[in-house]
Amino acid sequence: MPPLPKRKTSHARQGERRSHLEAKTSAMVPCPQCHEMRLPHRACPSCGYYRGKKVVETTAESK
User: Fold this and answer.
1) 3-state SS assignment for residue 49
2) Model pLDDT, residue 26
3) Alpha-carbon distance 43 to 57, whole Å?
4) By the 8 A CB rule, do 27 and 40 touch?
């Protein structure tokens, strides 16, 4: 049989153990083309550029 804990783990100790599991805010960087904030390593949702090239058709241009 596997060993079992002698006492119930308290909520405080459980919280201490999980303290590093909180959700982090994602880093945002300014787009070099339009200077809007965007996620790194992704095409800009406002202008559609990635690494100096147009890669995504935006909704404002399609109208």
Assistant:
1) strand
2) 87
3) 10
4) yes
How far from 10 is each of 2, 7, 13, CA to CA, in Å?
21, 9, 5
- Which residues neighbour 20 within 8 Å (Cβ) at sequence distance 6 or greater? none
What is the β-pairing status of strands 37-38 and 29-30?
Answer: antiparallel
Q: For residue 7, how many other CB atoms are within 10 A of its CB?
A: 6
Helix residue ranges per DSSP H, 1-63: 11-17, 59-62
Confidence of residue 30 (pLDDT cuts 50, 70, 90): very high
| pLDDT at residue 25, rounded to an integer | 87
